[in-house]
Amino acid sequence: MTGSRTGDYRILQEAALRDYLAGLPDIKKLLGGEPAVWSITEVGDGNLNLVFIVKGASGGIAVKQALPYVRLVGESWPLPLSRAHYEYLALSRQARLAPGLVPALLHHNETLALTVMELLEPHIIMRKGLVAGTRYPRFVDDITTFMARTLFFTSDLALIAAEKKEAIASFAGNHALCKITEDLIFTDPYRIAEQNRWTAPYLDGLAASLREDMELHVAISRLKLKFMSSPEALLHGDLHTGSIMVTASETRVIDPEFAFFGPMGFDVGAVLANLLMAYFASAGHERAAGERREFETWMLETVEQVWSEFARRFLDLWRSEASGDAYPVSLFAGEKGAMRLEAERQAYMQRLFIDTVGFAAAKTIRRIFGLAHNIDFELIEDPRKRAISEARAIRLARGMMVEAAAFRTIADVTGAARKLREWQPELSG
Ligand code: SR1
Ligand code: MG
């Protein structure tokens, strides 16, 4: 499966990619027919890479190649190609831990920073479906299975200490991608930064207030420290709804190039934040007032179920599959030990919930005031309407970040979101 290390990196445009793929016997066979008539389309709409869809007479594939710079910004922002290696490593591990929930890997070439994967069709990027108001009945089961299994089985609850430390080391080189997160999520939205942007002029006042808000600066700095210094488990690292492809009956998690060992709440918070943003954006996509109420009800139910099902699955794994060096069995013998350990499991989940709430808030604020925005809000054409949706999301996020511990349950979060849906913010301009 792994390609050769010979030759230098070069960006493969259509002709070169065709030749390259034609030289891979298994891929050539899968595509079928003459390479000259394969259709090759560049479809990458993410911030970093090239993505091609290639179709032949009998099949299709997706090809992802890392660029040596940030695509969204250009060559002025170099970025190591090694992220393709970490993405491949993460995908391989996720495929073992959560079978059927990531795309199948067909070929990888380290030198070209290129990976060939199964073509996900008719799957679409979940974010696009949510903007259109589509509900996904498999989503809760699939994403909570993915998170519970990938996080639990890469944690000290499942791994012995030596394995865990080796695993941390194998992802430690992905620090350039971590630095993007450290800057774009945990720092820039709270200071003047060249690449920040927001819905001006309506959110000018809110942007300025974020830069003055010392309680928020303390809270985001605590989260940043936790992100940098808590290698709890192998994270996907960028688990937003643009990294999830869906149909009504299937879910696939893609793009783990930000993978590293970090705090579990960062992944869980990413999913919750992006669902909450889709919820707040929904009002801005209405053509008639109230037409998306049922969708919005489903969104908040989904937020609740994502946390509760994740927690249930994670705890079940802990009760039945714990084989790591943490919480030695010998320290929790007998009925008394079992009861105390169960109480500790509940306390652990409560701490994880507080982390999740905080990270979800950080993920929300960065999409409204930082460099990289999301189409949930961006596709709201009327900037005033967009600003109203964004201001509601920010009000919730500030509370979640500064008073994370006041949100005892996920229903506290959805309850606050539901109330804010009716709140009319005062806008600038
Ligand atoms: C410069 S990269 C901007 C963002 O795109 C990725 O999807 C990550 O979320 C990153 O923060
Ligand atoms: Mg991505």
TrEMBL record:
<dbReference type="Pfam" id="PF01636">
    <property type="entry name" value="APH"/>
</dbReference>
<protein>
    <recommendedName>
        <fullName>S-methyl-5-thioribose kinase</fullName>
        <ecNumber>2.7.1.100</ecNumber>
    </recommendedName>
</protein>
<dbReference type="InterPro" id="IPR002575">
    <property type="entry name" value="Aminoglycoside_PTrfase"/>
</dbReference>
<keyword id="KW-0418">Kinase</keyword>
<dbReference type="GO" id="GO:0046522">
    <property type="term" value="F:S-methyl-5-thioribose kinase activity"/>
</dbReference>
<feature type="domain" description="Aminoglycoside phosphotransferase">
    <location>
        <begin position="40"/>
        <end position="289"/>
    </location>
</feature>
<keyword id="KW-0808">Transferase</keyword>
<dbReference type="GO" id="GO:0009086">
    <property type="term" value="P:methionine biosynthetic process"/>
</dbReference>
<dbReference type="InterPro" id="IPR011009">
    <property type="entry name" value="Kinase-like_dom_sf"/>
</dbReference>
<comment type="subunit">
    <text>Homodimer.</text>
</comment>
<keyword id="KW-0067">ATP-binding</keyword>
<dbReference type="InterPro" id="IPR009212">
    <property type="entry name" value="Methylthioribose_kinase"/>
</dbReference>
<keyword id="KW-0547">Nucleotide-binding</keyword>
<dbReference type="GO" id="GO:0005524">
    <property type="term" value="F:ATP binding"/>
</dbReference>
<comment type="similarity">
    <text>Belongs to the methylthioribose kinase family.</text>
</comment>
